[in-house]
Amino acid sequence: MIGLDLGSTAAKMVWIESGEIKFRITPAHNWKELVEGIDGDEIISTGYFRNSVPHRASLTELTAAVYGVRHYFPDAEVIVDIGGQDTKVIDVRNNNFIINDKCSAGTGAFLEFVANYFRIGLEELGPMHLNARRIPDINNTCGVFALSEMISQLVGGYSKEEVIAGMHYAFARRISHMVPEARSIVLIGGTVKNEGMVAALRNILEKEVLIPDEPQIINALGALEYYS
Amino acid sequence: MNKIGITALVPPELIFACGAAPFDVNNVIPASRKYPGNKLCAWTAIWKEMLIKKEITVDSLIVVAGGDCHNALVDGQKAAMSGIPTHFFFYPFDGDLEYLESQLHRLSGFLGGIRSPEVLKKIQELKKQGQMLDKKRCRGKLSSAEAFRILISFSDLTGDLAGFSRAISALEEKDIDVRNRVALIGVPPIYHDFHEVAQTLGLHIVFDELPYEFIRHGGCDIKEMARDYCGYTFAMPLESRIDFLKKELRKRKVDAVIHYTQFACHHMLEDEVLREKLDYPLLTIQGDLPGNTPQQIKLRLEAFREMLDRL
User: Fold this and answer.
1) Side-chain half-sphere exposure of B256, counting CA atoms within 13 A
2) Which residues of chain A neighbour B302 with C-beta distances below 8 Å?
């Protein structure tokens, strides 16, 4: 049996081999390669395109996140899942959830936008943030307008690294409005691999921030655990 | 028979009694696929635009501008400026009976006075049938989509009492597996297939807050109507509305609540209070433009059902 998370930007597959969690990740458009030779009856699917793939069972990524996070943090209170096209905040204590899928600010798409502007890879944003000496204020809550603010800060003398850090803080502030009072939060999703982003979130949220080893595969794992 | 546009709940019995046919301008919107230019709330913006462009034709218009929809006050004036004879109707916030009675007399005057008082009894009978349908839906004897389609039409009784009565009689009883009993509160969703979608995703709507208001008020003269419509919860202080909701939700044994909010509607501001005061799992969704229920809303509904299954 495999857990398959077909998200908007990446496809993630998880299976258990000799008690160990194994996984593979590919860009969303290559998802067919992941499941080549696997019978639909062996697939528990989740994610935005969960119903586009043959499956034995499917569940939403919100439920999958709860099961996946429980594997690593059984007492998790709040989960923040930062995906490519949306951000979901799940309050596990009272089964409440909020989704931001109307505005790109506060989603992975926004960071992709920033990386594209600087003509760098997404994975470079984190290390560059860590080299910033100052953090400029970027206040705009709209992703598109934040870009013009970012350009103003560059013209005003801030370095590329500092402006990227400022963008991460703007992003973190946007997400913080969705997060309820809690002792700790668990961060999952591909964007959490960005250490600059995580640093900004830790600073803004002022809560214990827990991150599983492979934050991007949690929903695929959750799909598998849900069915097991 | 003059066709009288109404923008929210206006006692339809009074309009019929004055020899005219009410036409709820909201009822064409979910299937309209209209995307208005200058808008806050799409409901009011679309009926305003359709009235001005004469895509909805009415002989005159009654705008509920006090005690319910605040955007209607401005959009109603824009429609009036296009030449449609318009009357503005105000509910009292404090339940002032005399005030509502005077409003109903003014409305009756605008419509030329009561000419057919005999229809009042007939409409009361129809509303009793509406209440029966509502109960049947609650017992799983009617699908929530079919019940909603009829109940929402009680705002104007489709302007045709005989035809509407036939539509009610044509409904057939069914046996529906009611698992997750959900109350839908707030303004009605702007998506035309919302109840079907909810049902498909395993959520059975057993209570529609606003349509329930359409069937529970009435009266055989203006005094009675004033007494009854004074309890129109959308016009009352929020605490009274919440007390009423608590009673209805308990009575219907609901498992959960969906609060539908409309983009740029002041009712959105009530969400945090409703969340705090109603002790049920509560999903808030926000709609904007009409059409099919979007995928993002479906995701929320499905996740909500999965959450209810886990409880």
Assistant:
1) 25
2) 60
CA distance B136 to chain A (A): 30
Chain B residues closer than 8 Å to A97 by CB: 300, 303, 307
Same domain, A98 and A197: yes
Task: Give phi and psi for A28, each to the nearest 5.
Answer: -55, -40
Residues A174 and A206 in one domain: yes
ipTM of the complex: 0.86
Nearest C-alpha neighbor of B148 from the set B192, B179, B114, B104: B192
Among B275, B300, B308, B311, most A C-beta atoms within 10 A, so best to mutate, is B300
Determine whether the interchain pair A99/B311 forms a contact, defined as Cβ–Cβ distance below 8 Å: no
Q: Length of chain A, please? A: 228
- Residues B232 and B217: beta-carbon distance below 8 Å: yes
Question: Residue B66 CB: number of other CB atoms within 10 A?
Answer: 17
Is the same domain home to A198 and A135?
yes
Are residues A69 and A54 located together in one domain of the fold?
yes
A131 and A150 fall within a common domain: yes
Instruction: Answer with the one of B66, B94, B110 that is the final residue of a domain.
Output: B110
Residue A45 — very low, low, confident or very high, per pLDDT cuts 50/70/90? very high
Q: Provide the domain count of chain B.
A: 2
* Chain A residues with beta carbon closer than 8 angstroms to that of B281: 94-96
Same domain, A90 and A101: yes
User: Do B303 and A63 make contact, defined as CB atoms within 8 angstroms?
Assistant: yes
For residue B301, the chain A residue with the least C-alpha distance is A60
Residue at a domain's end among B59, B79, B110 = B110
Residue A106 sits in a domain whose CATH number is 3.30.420.40
The pLDDT tens digits for B269-281 are: 999 999 999 999 9
Shared domain for A67 and A78, answered yes or no, is no
- The verdict on residue B142 lying in a domain is no
The Cα–Cα gap between B63 and B79 comes to 10
The label of the residue with tokens 């996984």 reads A23
Model pLDDT for residues A73-117, shown as the tens digit of each residue:
999 999 999 988 889 999 999 889 999 876 666 678 888 888 998
- DSSP E strand boundaries for chain B: 2-6, 20-24, 60-66, 86-90, 181-186, 204-208, 256-262, 282-287
The residue of chain B with its CA nearest to that of A66 is: B307
Give the β-pairing of A10-17 and A2-6: antiparallel
Between positions 82 and 121 of A, the ones with CB within 8 A of B are 94-97, 99, 101
- Asked whether residue A40 falls in the same domain as residue A81, the answer is no
Give the range of the structural domain holding residue B87, as residue numbers without chain letter.
2-110
